[in-house]
Amino acid sequence: MKDILQDLSYSQTEELVLTLGEKKFRAKQLFDGINKGRRISEIPGLSAEFRAKLTERFEDCPAEIVRTYKSADGTEKYLFRLADGNIIEGVLMKYKYGNTQCVSTQVGCRMGCKFCASTLNGRIRDLTAGEILSQVLVVNALHAEGKIRGVTNIVLMGSGEPLDNYDNVVKFLKNVTAAEGLNISARNISLSTCGLVERMYDLAEEGLPVNLTVSLHNTTDEERARTMPIAKRYKIKDILDACTNYFEKTGRRYIFEYSLIEGENCDARHAEELVRLLKGRPCHVNLIRLNEVKERNLKALGDKQAYRFLGLLEKGGLSATLRRQIGSDIGGACGQLRAGYLEGGEN
Ligand code: SAH
C-alpha cells in the first residue's frame, strides 16, 4: 500500500512539499484541497510534475464510498473501500443542530462483544489516522453544499475499538480538530470505548477534551463478561475510577451506553444496580435498542419495557435517555452492513 497523505499534519505537509522541491506555500494549497475531500488529481493549481510525484507515493483516495444507503428519515449509511480493498462502514445522522458522522477506527474488531457484528471475524487491521480522517473528508464534501462544514459532529462508534488503536486515533483527533484543517471542536467529538482502563487514563492527558462514552451494558463484572469478554480484564469499579479521572482532568461529563438485551441486562434489579453505581456522578446514561444481529441469539427488549427501564433510572435520580431509533429502514449498523456486503447480500 502507498502512504496516506491524510495522515500528515499541516507542518508535516509543509515539510513534504519542501522535500519534493516545491515552494512552501504549496502546502496550504495541498492541505486545503485534501481537507475539502479532494483527490490529489482534483486539487486545482498543482503542476503536473508535482501531482505525479504525489500520486507515485500517496494514495489518491484512501476511503472511497462504494455504496450509499439513504433512509426516509435522512440518515445515510456508507460502505467505504480502503486502498487495500478492505471494506468499512459509516453513518451520517441529521439532527436539528447539525450532522453527526459515525466513523470506524479498525477493520473488524477483536473485543468479541456478543451482540456486535463488527467483531464476528475478529480484527483485520487498524486504520491509519488518515483513513479515519478520509471517511469524514469525503462525507463532509458530499454534504457541505456551500457551507464550510457538512459534518459538524463526529462519533467514534463505527467498527473497531478506538482505544485499541490508540496512537492513530489520537493523531486523527489532533488533525481533525486542527485550526488549519476541518477545525471541528473536540467538544463535538465523542469517543466510545468498551473500557480499556489504562488508555482511558492516557486519553485524559492528551489535552483533547472529547466526550468520553463507555459501553457498560451490565451492572456486575460477572454478568458483563457474558456479553463482553473484555470485562474479564477490566472491572467496572476501575472503569468508573478512570471516568472520574477523565472528568477531573478534562471537565467533561461522561456517558454510559447501555444496550437493552432481553433477559440479560434489563430487569428491575439492573436498574437499581445502575442507580447505585452511577448516582451522583457527572454522567448520562444512553439506553440503546439492540440491533439484532442474525448470527447471534440475542433479542432486543420491547419498547414498553424499555421505557419502563428508563423510568426506573430517572426515578432513581439518573440523567438518562432512550436513544431514538433512526435509519432502521436501511439495515443496522455496528458492522452489519459490512458483514452483509462481504457475504454478497444486501443486508
Ligand atoms: N468499541 C467501541 C465502539 C463500539 S460501537 C465501544 O465498545 O464502545 C458503539 C456502541 O454500539 C457500543 O456501545 C456498542 O457496545 C454498541 N453496539 C454494538 N453492537 C450493537 C448492537 N448490535 N446493538 C446495539 N448496540 C450495539
What is the number of helices? 11
Alpha carbon gyration radius: 21 Å
**Compounds present?**
S-adenosyl-L-homocysteine
User: Which percent range describes the beta-strand content?
Assistant: 15-25%
Largest sheet: 10 strands, mixed
Q: H/E order of the elements?
A: HHHEEEEEEHEHEHEHHEHEHEH
What structural category arises from helix and sheet content?
alpha/beta
Can you tell me the residue ranges where pLDDT is under 50 for at least 5 consecutive residues? none
How many strands appear in the DSSP assignment?
12
Would you kindly provide a brief summary of this structure?
This protein has helices at 10-19, 26-35, 48-57, 129-143, 166-177, 197-204, 221-227, 236-250, 268-278, 303-315, 336-342, and strands at residues 63-70, 76-82, 87-95, 98-102, 106-108, 123-126, 153-156, 189-193, 211-215, 254-260, 283-289, 320-322. The chain has 347 residues and is an alpha/beta fold.
